[in-house]
């Protein structure tokens, strides 16, 4: 499946980031950087949804964040811990679907439905 078509869950990714922090050592700095970047991404997203920024400014911010995110992941791939290298390599494979406006919006709709008890469907 093409990366842009894949659904990725930020909650699962944040657990991966926390695991890097928990491992300590060389994995810890990358584990701290990735959630910081994802926090910035969500702040920008919420500003766009609230119409506090226009799409052009949002896209500019996303381009900058994409570069920072890719740099952090590339740094993680070079770490001495196999789990950190593997986690960062896997995230790199799907990062296109994480940081694109269209893919992100579609993912948000699929992963954040209204809560409906399964017995009432």
From TrEMBL:
Q: Which domain of life is it from?
A: Bacteria
Q: List the protein's name.
A: Transposase
Organism (species): Tautonia sociabilis
Organism placement in taxonomy: Bacteria, Pseudomonadati, Planctomycetota, Planctomycetia, Isosphaerales
């Amino acid at each position: 499946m093409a990366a842009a078509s894949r659904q990725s869950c930020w909650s699962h990714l944040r657990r991966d980031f926390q695991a890097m922090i928990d491992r300590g050592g060389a994995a810890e700095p990358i584990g701290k950087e990735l959630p910081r970047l994802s926090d910035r991404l969500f702040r920008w997203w919420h500003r766009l949804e609230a119409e506090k920024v226009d799409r052009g400014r949002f896209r500019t911010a996303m381009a900058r964040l994409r570069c920072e995110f890719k740099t952090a992941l590339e740094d993680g791939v070079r770490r001495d811990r196999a789990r950190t290298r593997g986690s960062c390599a896997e995230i790199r494979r799907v990062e296109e679907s994480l940081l694109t406006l269209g893919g992100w919006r579609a993912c948000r709709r699929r992963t954040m439905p209204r809560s409906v008890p399964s017995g009432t469907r």
